Amino acid sequence: MQFDKYFMEKPATKRKIYYFCNREMNVLTDISLRWRMWRLLAVIVTMTACLAVAAQPEIAGDTLFVYYRDGHIDVYPRQVLTHAQNNGKWLILNTIDDEWLVEELTDIDSIGTTAPPALLPAITQVKLKVSTNYGLMDDVTCTLGPDSITAQVNAIGKWLIPDFKTGSDQVTIYLDGTDTPAAGRRRNFAGDVAYVAAMPQCHLIAVKDSTVVSPDTTLYTLHRVPFGRRYAMHVDFGNLATLPVPRIDINTEDGRPILSKTDYLWAEIIVNGQGVYPSMTDSVRVRGRGNSSWNGDTVANAKNSYRLKFDVKKGVLGLKKGKNWVLLANKQSGSMMTNAVGMKVASVVGTAAWNHIVPVNLYINGEYRGNYNLTEKIGFSNNSIDLPDETRATLLEIDAYYNEPQRFRSSPYSLPMLVHEPEFADTLSTVLTQAKVKTEFNKLARAAYDGNVESLQKLLDYDSFARYIMVNELLYNLEILFPKSLWCYRENLEDESSKWIFGPVWDWDWSFGYDAVYYRYSYVNTTSDFWNATVKSGQRFLKALRFNSGEEMERAYYNVWKDFMENGGLDDVMDYCQNYQTYVQKSFTLNYNKWRDGSTSTYRPMASNTNVWLRTRSNFLYSAINPDFEPVDEQPVEDIRTPVDETRAARADEPVDVFTLQGVCVRRQVPRSQMKSGLAPGIYITNQEKFIISR
User: Which has the least CB within 10 A, 40, 382, 426, 551?
Assistant: First the structure.
């Protein structure tokens, strides 16, 4: 046995850090005499440094800042240090995880005990935006303090994604205690959430976890996290049970009824946000919409869906400006939550161009029509699929109704393809022809049919498809398998690097395990096999894309599920579901009084049942995914110490003998956790391991 010193290279800085550790050495190992001499010299230097510890005064201060010549900075709070000394040649540190660190002062620019202002950058602005926060009722600018962020918010659910600004591009905002950037990360604001604004190459040595092994002994694991100015963000939420749902009045010209799905009527629209959402009054054109649900041509006052079209882009109820909007009737009994919760899942998973849903009470020509959902109309526009150049782009819907003038059958699979964008007759806005669109889509269908992975990798955006399919499989949306309401688009058909993107998701009336016998949602099909629920052309096509695309698709699908299950996605959806019912129930009750759908006895248990259904189905599907495909790009928070393990914890109270280097036994059969108690400074041996007592 001998005391050993080893060198650990830090890849980020290529700086040598000297750690003291105890290692068992085999004296019979074939090592050259020269190497043994160098190791002996290293031992002598190490022991000299350790023995010098007791003779040097300890560095004072609550925090130690070590500035290295290569530009990076390590910050040690006093809580993680048992010793911090500078003997003129080395900086000698002992941390609470019982490790020694010796730094040559030639590698260090300076050592301080206070943080200069440059290491504590400030956040200059925090906003909560409707565009990125599904369920938020209006944009909110937060109030900033020296170390606090506060906001008054009306939102359906408490999971939010703040948008941060700082005074420098070099500053990054992190989730406190991690090296995870906060940008785009949703957090649960049921309690305060902490963030850190940090400069690059500045790290805090902090406690990652601890294990209490006896009343007198705690084992620690330390890690490196960004150091900077810490902010605690607090959000006060409005009481959803008392907040009113917006009211929309549509007053048609001369009070004419809306009887057509093709002919628009001019109307005045009055949007009353009830002091919660933004309000507006404007002129608009309105017509009916829908397929099997539409009966406005025979029943003028039925609960039908409508299409709204403004002459110029308008931001209705705080949503991003656009010309075209939809009022969804949710006519099917029990369906008044499905679109709202379904789109919430899409927003959390991050499907392409997901839609917002805002519940409203609709009045037409003064007559109450029921609880509706306002949402964006799918299309090439800045409030739906926002493209920088639409001249070579196409938007397709695969739908068995096959009822649009621009349409074709794909090969193979004979899919019913509806071309929503572009309008081929408008040669000023597009250079494409229907023949070109058909040829390009058929390349994708053929590659899926043949299982040509190389071609699929070139033609299909795997990430968007994985997110699209994950949401539909989770919600058991069988409509896309027929197929119905199956959307996809491609930005540039003349660019080989442009790929097909699946989405936006649409229409959740026949999802959530819909029971068509008893007309109810979220009771059955929690563990049903989505892919074998039916055998239709949509099912064959989508199944080929999902399972014929190779390992890259398997990995993409697994990554989407892992993020959803392990980073709060499911909890966010369930929180929204329960809060949506609380907020909209008064509107549901009004709808019940007119249409006999919306009673508290129906929708309150439905919200609870939906959450149980979502959790059960999520766990079932996630557990069935191939675990061999771990995310390759996931970077854990860096550990700089040996993790605490069960073996080490179990050894804490085993009886040991303690000897000096001269072989004198100074402790006999004492618990390992107490073996250092009362020992004089020096080097000791126990069970062929060495340890240091500095004072």
Answer: 426
Per DSSP, 523 falls in state S
Give yes or no: residues 682 and 611 share one domain. Answer: no
Same domain, 109 and 166: no
pTM for this predicted structure? 0.84
| Residues 6 or more apart whose Cβ sits within 8 Å of residue 19 | 5, 6, 8, 99, 100, 101, 102
Tell whether the model's pLDDT for residue 237 goes beyond 50. yes
Non-local (6+) Cβ contacts of 202 within 8 A are: 72, 73, 75, 119, 226, 227, 228
Among 174, 202, 237, which residue terminates a domain?
A: 237
Q: Which domain holds residue 662?
A: 653-693
Q: How confident is the model at residue 671 (pLDDT cuts 50, 70, 90)?
A: confident
User: What is the reported pLDDT for 296?
Assistant: 82
What distance in Å separates the CA atoms of residue 185 and residue 174, rounded to the nearest whole number? 10
- Asked if residue 395 belongs to a domain, the reply is yes
Residue-wise pLDDT tens digits, 562-594: 999 999 999 999 999 999 999 999 999 999 999
Residue 568 resides in a domain: yes
Same domain, 56 and 160: no
Query: Scanning the structure block, which residue is given the tokens 């049903």?
Result: 528
Together in a domain, 574 and 436: yes
Specify burial of residue 67 (Cβ count, 10 A radius: 0-12, 13-18, 19+).
Answer: middle
Query: Among 215, 237, 259, which residue terminates a domain?
Result: 237
* C-alpha span between 604 and 607 (Å, rounded): 5
Provide the terminal-to-terminal Cα distance of the chain, rounded to the nearest Å. Answer: 24
On whether the CB atoms of residues 306 and 270 are closer than 8 A, the answer is no
Rounded to whole angstroms, the Cα distance separating 615 from 601 reads 22
Percent of the chain with pLDDT over 70: 85
Pick left, alpha or beta for residue 630 (phi over 0 → left; psi -120 to 50 → alpha; otherwise beta). Answer: beta
* Count, residues in the chain: 695
Of 459, 462, 506, give the one whose Cα is nearest residue 485.
Answer: 506
- Between CA 330 and CA 686 the distance in angstroms is 74
Neighbours of 229 (CB within 10 A): 21
Burial (CB count within 10 angstroms: exposed 0-12, middle 13-18, buried 19+), residue 678: exposed
| Domain count for the chain | 4
Among the residues of 304-419, which ranges form H helices? 338-349
Q: What burial class does residue 295 get, using C-beta atoms within 10 Å of its C-beta: 0-12 exposed, 13-18 middle, 19+ buried?
A: middle
- Alpha-carbon span 666 to 486, nearest angstrom: 78
